Amino acid sequence: MKKTILSSIVTCCSIFVASNSHAALRVLDFDLDANGNAIQNGQIIDDEYSSWGVQISGCNINGAVSSGTDQINGICADDGGDKAQRQTTFDTSLENTADPDLEFFNNGTQYESREGTDSVKKFYDPLSERKEFYEDLYSDERRETYKKPGNVLIIHENNTCNGNECSNPDDEGTRPAGFFVFEFTNNPVDILSLDFFDVEVTESQFGQPATKLYFFLTNNTVREADVPGIGHGHYQRENYSNMFGVTKLVVNMPGSGAINNLVFRDSTPQSAEVNAPAALAFLLIGFGFIYLRRR
Fold this sequence. Notes:
Number of strands: 14
Keywords: Membrane, Signal, Transmembrane, Transmembrane helix
CATH topology: Jelly Rolls
Number of helices: 3
Radius of gyration: 22 Å
Strand content: 25-35%
Strand order of the largest sheet: 3-2-8-13-10-11
Shape: globular
Mean pLDDT: 84
Low-confidence stretches: 9-23, 271-283
Signal peptide: 1-23
Transmembrane segments: 274-292
CATH architecture: Sandwich
Largest sheet: 6 strands, antiparallel
Distance between the termini: 10 Å
């Protein structure tokens, strides 16, 4: 009887810790929307993740910022020069596209870029290092999307969009290209990582704000991070260790390139991230032992 009660307490605590530490993690992979619907090549991404509290916008500045456009705060004038709503998906699995720099193929063991002059950062790293945290999303379908680049998000170059999609998607190659804006409308979030594709080294010479990410925090401060200059046809995942309590993220693209797999979670105090549920679990176990001892 004692063992049964203790076992029940431990099981209950384990479930509590798992559900509280894992449940809030989200991934914007641009392959499936928040409701599990497939996202198409060339689709303009804006409210596809609204049920997760994310609104997405973008701006093509085509090499020069027009009056009223703000690359730091993510404001697009959308006039004759700058164009809003050009944040478009590009399917990396396709061939003979307008942008072969972003094409990937399965070489039998992993996904490899069709472009690039060497092997450094040329191979895609499946999104698996945190899969234990994706349990609430980890359906068979989503598990497959995390194994390959799939759709990435680009700033579309040409005026071939109708408000819902852009035909023949191609990333803006003029330097600087523009920016993406992610607004977290429900709760602040912690940004964990973001994937970058085909950001050329020469583009990293521009300086602020064209080569920066801007993280707007709940304490009214703004933190910066660099857009990595990873080279022609290459890929890199950037991990962020201190971007907590983010309400808005602005990602500038200094030239051609794409992003994918924005990983975030509901913001919690650092000390409470794992310790609070674990502490409560051990406290409940302690009460269990006291109860059994008295019995």
